[in-house]
Design a protein that fits this description.
By secondary structure, the chain is α+β, with helices and mostly antiparallel strands. It has helices spanning 25-38, 52-57, 59-68, 91-97, 111-124, 128-140, 145-173, 177-180; strands at 3-8, 42-47, 75-78, 81-85.
Length: 202
C-alpha cells in the first residue's frame, strides 16, 4: 500500500476552519486526503504544534527543518521521499504522487447542444428573432425537429413554472381575488384598439 505523509506547519488544527480567518486551501486539501484514503492510499498527517515528536522521529523531515526552517512546511512525503514542499498540492498532483489516474469525462457540450440551449432560452424569454435564428442554426447542424421540440417544451416549462407560482402568490395576497377577476381581452400583434386605432401591444 502506498503511504503518503503530510507534515503541516504549526497551527491550531489541520482543517483550516478555526481561527480568525478561514484558509480555503486547507478544507479542500483535507477533502483531497479523504479522497486518497478512499482510493486505498495510506495517509498520515502530522501538525508541528501538536505532534512535534513525529517531526523529530523522521530523519529526513528533521534534517530538512534544520536546514530550511519552518518555511519548508508543509512537507509531503511518499514512500519516505519528499515530493512537495512549501505548499499544499492539488488533487491532481496528489494523485500523480501516488500513481493514481484521475477519471476524465468527455464534455457533452457541442454546437448542436448550444443551439438547443439557445432555443429553450428563446422560448423562455419570448424572443422571436432569437428563436428563428437558433432554429435555423440547429437545422444547419442536423438537429432533428423532435429534439428542437423538446428544447421548446423545456423552455416553456421553465417560463411557465415561475409565472404560475407568482400568480398563486398574488392570489394568496389578494385573498383569492385574482381567480375571480374577469379574463382580460386578448392582445395580439394584429389587433387594434377601437378608440385609438393603434395596436394594443404598441
Amino acid at each position: 500500500m502506498v503511504k503518503l505523509q503530510v507534515f503541516d506547519p504549526p497551527m491550531c488544527c489541520s482543517t483550516g476552519i478555526c481561527g480568525p480567518a478561514v484558509d480555503p486551501v486547507l478544507p479542500k486539501f483535507t477533502a483531497d486526503l479523504d479522497w486518497l484514503r478512499g482510493q486505498g492510499v495510506q495517509v498520515e498527517r502530522y501538525n508541528l504544534a501538536q505532534q512535534p515528536a513525529a517531526f523529530v522521529a523522521n530523519d529526513l523531515v528533521k534534517r530538512t527543518l534544520a536546514e530550511e526552517g519552518n518555511n519548508c512546511l508543509p512537507l509531503i512525503l511518499v514512500g519516505g521521499q519528499i515530493v512537495s514542499r512549501c505548499a499544499y498540492p492539488t488533487r491532481e498532483k496528489l494523485a500523480a504522487f501516488v500513481g493514481l489516474v484521475l477519471e476524465t469525462r468527455e464534455s457533452l457540450y457541442s454546437p448542436a447542444v448550444e443551439e438547443l440551449v439557445a432555443i429553450g432560452a428563446s422560448i423562455a424569454c419570448n424572443c422571436m428573432p432569437c428563436l428563428k435564428y437558433h432554429t435555423d442554426r440547429a437545422l444547419s447542424l442536423g438537429v432533428s425537429d423532435e429534439d428542437m421540440a423538446k428544447a421548446v417544451a423545456m423552455g416553456e416549462k421553465v417560463k411557465q413554472t415561475p409565472a404560475k407560482l407568482i400568480l398563486e402568490l398574488a392570489n394568496r395576497y389578494l385573498n383569492g381575488k385574482v381567480e375571480d377577476a374577469p379574463e382580460p381581452q386578448a392582445c395580439s400583434t394584429g389587433s387594434t384598439n377601437s378608440n385609438s386605432g393603434s395596436k394594443c401591444c404598441g
